[in-house]
Amino acid sequence: MLANISTSWKKHLEEELKKTYFKSLLEFITEEYKNEECFPKEEAIFNAFNLCPFEAVKVVIIGQDPYHDVGQANGLCFSVNNGVPFPPSLKNIFKELETDLQIPYPDTGNLEPWAKQGVLLLNATLTVRAHQAGSHQKKGWETFTDEVIKLISDKKEGVVFLLWGGFAKKKAKLIDKNKHHILTSGHPSPLSANRGYWFGNKHFSKTNYLLQKTGEKPLLWSL
Hints:
Oligomer: single chain
CATH superfamily: Uracil-DNA glycosylase-like domain
Strand order of the largest sheet: 3-2-5-6
Structural class: alpha/beta
Distance between the termini: 30 Å
């Protein structure tokens, strides 16, 4: 499974991958995938890293758990495979994108084009058992992904972190605010969005503004 992490990340995470907790996590995940239906597919677990090399990271979006229904999760937070109906949060992301940047509502919910432009679409927990939300939480993934956030904070500059909802906002303590940009808002889930905590945050245009300010190319958010 570790062979699936790209070398661009592996060289920075080498010590982390040797730690006892991570070895225990891998043993747990290996057993789960052998005996239970789990998502995403095993080869897609580290997609967030493999589609967005460490050197390319300029934006980080933090999710919590992969989607747990058949065919949805593809290793990128909030993203679904081509042809899969959009979950409610993803619908609201696209509605805000449409309002903010006048980008037409897309035909696909696959966010790979964002990842390939330098957006790390990172779930705090990278795997889940089918139809059991949160089933792989507190097994070690959160320790690992917190280290990833700290690594980006320590070794890069000018990264834009988009923290949507209470869970993601707690990750702000891992980020050096003097070196990076942090944008926060409510979660795009209907519960939060319909209370006025999501729509109108303009995070997509604000991200592009911040990137251009530091000499980076703005992102093409259209899919």
